[in-house]
Design brief:
Layout lengths: L1 H24 L3 H14 L4 H13 L3 H14 L4 H13 L3 H14 L5 H12 L3 H14 L4 H13 L3 H14 L4 H13 L3 H14 L6 H8 L7 H13 L4 H13 L3 H14 L4 H13 L3 H14 L4 H14 L2 H8 L11 E2 L15 E4 L4 H7 L3 H7 L4 E5 L4 H7 L4 E4 L12 E2 L1 H7 L3 E4 L4 H4 L17 H11 L6 E6 L7 H4 L9 H4 L4 E5 L6 H11 L3 E2 L10 H9 L3 E4 L3 H9 L3 E3 L18 E3 L9 H17 L2
Parallel strand pairs: 1-5, 2-3, 2-6, 3-4, 7-8, 7-10, 8-9, 10-11, 11-12
Helix pairs in contact: 1-2, 2-3, 3-4, 3-5, 4-5, 5-6, 5-7, 6-7, 7-8, 8-9, 9-10, 9-11, 10-11, 11-12, 11-13, 12-13, 13-14, 14-15, 15-16, 15-17, 16-17, 17-18, 17-19, 18-19, 19-20, 21-31, 26-30
Organism: Thalassobaculum fulvum
GO molecular function, one term: protein O-acetylglucosaminyltransferase activity
Keywords: TPR repeat
Length: 648
Amino acid sequence: MAAAKSGAASAELVRSFNAAVAHHSAGRLGEARDLYERLLKRLPDHPDLLDLYGTLRHQLGDHAAAAAFVGRSVARRPAAPAAWNHLGSIRRALGQADQADSAFRRSAMIMPAAAEPWINIGIVANDRGDPERAVRAGRRALSVQPSLTEVRVQVGAALSALGRIVESLDALLPVRRVAPLRADLALHLSAVQAAVGDHAAALDTARRGIVANPIVHELYPRLLGVRDPESDTDAFVRWAGFATCLRPGEARLWANRAAELYRAARFDAAGRQAMRAGVLEPADRAALQNMVSSAYSLRRFEHGRRVAQWCLAAHPGAADVRFALAEIELVIGDLGRAWTLYEARIVRADAMPRLGLPPRWDGPGTEDGPLLVAAEQGIGDEVVFLSCLPDLLDAVSVPVVVEVDRRLVPVMARSFPGVRVVARQYPADAPGRRLLDYRDLVAREGLRRVVFAGSLPRYFRRDRSRPSDRGGYLVPDAELVAAWRTRLAGGRPATTVGLVWKSARMTRFRAQFHAGILDWAPILAVPGCSFVSLMPGEVDAEIARVRERLGVTIERPAGLDPWNDIDSLMALMASLDVVVAARTATCAFAGAIGVPTIRVAPSYYRITDDRDLFFANVTPVLDRLAAFDARVAAEAAARLLSERTSQP
């Protein structure tokens, strides 16, 4: 009789246990909890019950209690791999990375043929910011179970974090063939494709990911981040808007929308969306940064300064905000402070990685051996900043090596025969020109210090009331200059004028600083001038339109490649009487070779009025606080050109 009762009790326990597990598996956690707790009163030390109940408490968010129950389970049955794996997940939820890693490794040691512990070891490694260990763990998991697509994606993401972009691409592309609809694949593969410069493929991957997973809001910011930096269609504003519809309470998505509106030159709207992000999250860095950038573009400099200061109080290390504040201070603040803030550009999120640089040079007297002047930013900025190179050479007595865009090497070497001039240090095997590697150059030249070209004004252009009296610093090829003068001679009016009316890479953001060629009618109407195009790219239709509408001929020199053959372009400009140029790199080239230049824009970086801080031969037509107005700018440029032609 006693045996029968015992058997019945055991059968009841088994039925209750099975019912609890069934409820648990079906997600009916409340029912499962009640049954587990009743069973634990009868069997308080049963390892399976302790493990399952602890796991359920973990699922309910009570991680501390969960750790206690599963800890008791593995203490009573230390060879249970699943319980160790559960304990690792609980420790991870508690933020105990070391204990989590240890638990997962115990599980892997007990059951080496299981992939799950190694997957979790990789996840913990990613939590710790250790992608190298994440790669190793992922590969161990794949050696056990090669078909794990989620692990292949994790390995590819970790390789990308290590900067091993080609390996990452090789890991991720095969996953697309077997699991093309995965959202995490779209996130990571699109980023890697963009990193190697294949923006079209990256955009396609991100779009496919959104089509397959339209409610995964993380894909929308990724779509915006991988496109070609020059692209600015309304589609991207709409994509950003879709994301805010999916998650209207997420400040980051409103900040992204603000950034897209800013890129589209819709500055008022950008500022409003950034403010909305700020309402949701008052200390959101991206929101505050977009407010600052919008204020700058709207010339609300004092407001932008205040917002930047608020942001830096909350985020002292925000390099993008420090840079935005630097741009404001260049216009309205102390120039020395502005250049100090401008150093933030070197560590901005989009700054190109540089390997093997020596320690920074901190001004005259801190050099202790050969000095590298490192290139940065665009070629136009490079030419502007290097106008300070003669000042540097006067201030130091050590050998100097100057890194420039490869197109500038001939003219720089000619202009500074005592300086070693090298092209930008892109590694031959690095895809997409996404990093610079100085290790060989530093070893070969014995370089001890580095100063970035954009840091030179910090030491040599600190006072806006004392602009440079130097009219140019580059020496064009004398034979090419003579050849151009011969080609341009004969039957021309007294004044030959070079024209640059827009950026070669026009976007809507850049369009705010430029006018159409027909808007330059006042300039083209100045008597006594012949006009020569210095524009790269296809502009024949615009030149024809000027001839048809205004009856003015703009010559386009045959054989000139202004984009690639900058040496010949500079020689042509040196043979001209004056250059009239919009806000472009070519305007900087004209200033650098000393030709009289009318800049149809404010001065460089809006620092000065009437004349430029860097080039004495460059005259801006707009004050630094003025908005760009095509009609006003063209009429002012025409007046300056008329004065020039009337001079004997």
